[in-house]
Amino acid sequence: MTIHDDIAALIRSQDPEAAAIIEAEAERQESTIELIASENHASPAVMHAAGTCMTNKYAEGYPGRRYYGGCEHHDRIETLAQERAKQMFGCAFANVQPHSGAQANAAVFMALMEPGDTYASLVLADGGHLSHGLPINFSGHYYNPVHYPLVRDKSSADFERIDYDAVREVCLEHKPKMLLTGYSAYPRTIDFARFRAIADEVGALLMADVAHISGLIAGGQHPSPFPHAHVVTTTTHKSLRGPRGGLILTNDEDIHKKCARALFPGMQGGPLMHIIAAKAVAFGEALTDEYKAYQEKIIANADALAKALIEHGFRITSGGTDNHVMLVDLSAKDPKGFEGELTGKAAEKWLEDAGIVCNKNGIPEDPRKPMVTSGIRLGTPATTTRGFGASEMKLVAGFIDRVLTAGLTGEEELARVTGQVRDEVRELCGRFPLPHGEAGGVAAG
Ligand SMILES: *Cc1c(COP(=O)(O)O)cnc(C)c1O
């Protein structure tokens, strides 16, 4: 019996009700195509590390300086995670305790700014994150965000890319304490050196939130924010493919110390030691050659998907992608444009019914509301994990085209095509089982 079977049998016999729900989720992940750009399938080793006895311990404080006894092995696992994180990103200090990406950002803000201080970022509607200044988020409520734009000139080769001249102008005008780069829906390579030059010109700290692209960076497929950024935050569960959590990285000892204090005891209590154990395992994976090849494939797959969608008549914002993510402007596919039925909300629903999971997403200058939108965001980290290559991405583009075209035709046609595509999606997924197989759920028989 494997460890997987043991776990499955145990949960099933003790709590069939919860086991059935987990099992249903395992089956959903197994039989659908996951295109949400911020999701991935963590390895069995990572998931099982998260399911160990490490969850039982209070280890407030940091290795060697804990508020509780019995932390010997917790010091060792946290130090291992730190060392591997530093190696992955080529930096001097790592804090592996943030419970999430947003917590990591909150700690950095608390450490390096006073309430009311000004910082510059990209607005959520242009691809930023809610923790970069949404008014009802801590980042917009307690601080003063000013936003730099994307290039709006359609005739420019840089249309819908970061407008670096405007970043400089915004910074010269507002003299922010911090300049924030790194995004949630930005398909192009970030020029960290250029951001640093602007930050230096106005005396700002440069913060890079690489939540989405940290796997690409660790795998050498996107330029590193080091040595340019003063401080770097990331999630560990997106392209990085670890457990759900966050990280704070820096080369500056003073910044490291301030951020560590802001995180604990500033805003968190006991660290999630089982998640830190899983981070150590995931970071171990990230230091292998296979991981490098995986990250390379994510990019090749995103490029293949974007190109195939363009051939089907969709518009991809900025004309394509350099990384793992793309934004599809659906209005280009709808004869009625922004007045038509093909909204992000409709597309998300229609595709989900056909077994293709993605999220609606505003496109730059989107005329529709955030709960409706004119776009969908697609990413390839998860499908690449299950083994899809460029030819499968072309099939996926064809599925998307068929479902959305049918949706525009009418309800009957949509129902017919949805059924067909759902079967084809199931067949395709069956040929590419998830790495956790049945072990990720409680389905082991
Ligand atoms: C996902 C994301 C976060 C937040 O991560 P959570 O773990 O969901 O809190 C922060 N910043 C960016 C740019 C992100 O994309």
What's the helix and strand layout?
Layout: H1 3-14, H2 16-31, E1 33-34, H3 44-50, E2 61-62, E3 65-66, H4 72-89, E4 93-95, H5 101-112, E5 118-122, H6 138-141, E6 144-148, H7 164-174, E7 178-181, H8 192-202, E8 205-209, H9 214-218, E9 231-235, E10 246-250, H10 253-263, H11 273-286, H12 289-311, E11 315-316, E12 325-329, H13 344-353, E13 356-357, E14 359-360, E15 375-379, H14 381-385, H15 390-409, H16 411-431
Parallel strand pairs: 1-13, 5-6, 5-7, 7-8, 8-9
Antiparallel strand pairs: 2-3, 4-10, 9-10, 11-12, 12-15, 14-15
Helix pairs in contact: 1-2, 3-11, 4-11, 5-10, 7-8, 12-15, 13-15, 15-16
Q: How would you portray this structure in words?
A:
The chain has 445 residues and is α/β, with parallel strands linked by helices. It folds into 2 domains: 234 residues, 3-Layer(aba) Sandwich (Aspartate Aminotransferase, domain 2); 140 residues, Aspartate Aminotransferase, domain 1, CATH 3.90.1150.10. Helices cover 45% and strands 12% of the residues. It has 16 helices and 15 strands. The strands form 4 sheets. A 7-stranded mixed sheet has the order 4-10-9-8-7-5-6, with helices on both faces. A 4-stranded antiparallel sheet has the order 11-12-15-14. Strand 7, helix 8 and strand 8 form a beta-alpha-beta unit. Helix 5 crosses helix 10, helix 12 packs parallel to helix 15 and helix 13 crosses helix 15. The N and C termini lie close together (11 Å). The structure holds pyridoxal-5'-phosphate.
